[in-house]
Amino acid sequence: YIPFFLILFIYFTGCFTPVEEESRMPVAALLLMGPSSLYYWYLVTEGQIFILYIFTFFAMMALVMHQKRKGLVLDSNGLFLFYSFIITLVLIAVWVVWLWNDKILRKKYPGVIYIPEPWAFYTLHVNNLHAAKESL
Question: How does pLDDT run across 76-103, given as a tens digit for each residue?
Fold first, then answer.
């Protein structure tokens, strides 16, 4: 995953413009932001790569602040990627809060950073619901 996030960050570094008007996102981009964020959420949670994701996100934030001092703003592509990462962080937080008190997943994912895999949740909870319905 390191090359993937490195390529995303390198791409992001080229998404700055001095013209404020070029930083508007088209409606299609706004519509695609949800699926994009959901994809990153799945990648981070299932791949257990939160540390890599959060370091990339912090690097992106630092670059935005640095470029802002130079008078540069994100273009529409950069805004799309940056907002997708923000929404992904919100999705991860909601996921963790929702499963915070799950005793079985807590045992499976011990440690300071608790981010259960979606597949583990599915096999533990959803799959058992299907088996219970079939036995009725």
Answer: 999 999 999 999 999 999 999 999 998 8
Q: Which residues pair with 16 in a beta bridge?
A: 74
The interaxial angle of helices 76-98 and 50-69, nearest 10 deg, is: 140
- Annotate 45-90 with DSSP letters as a single string: HHHT-HHHHHHHHHHHHHHHHHHHHTT-EE-HHHHHHHHHHHHHHH
Give backbone dihedrals phi and psi of 44, rounded to 5 degrees, phi first: -70, -45
Distance CA 14, CA 131 (A): 50
Record the tokens describing residue 58, joined without a space. 């912090």
Cβ contact 79:98 at 8 Å: no
Q: Model-level pTM?
A: 0.87
CA-based end-to-end distance of the chain? 43
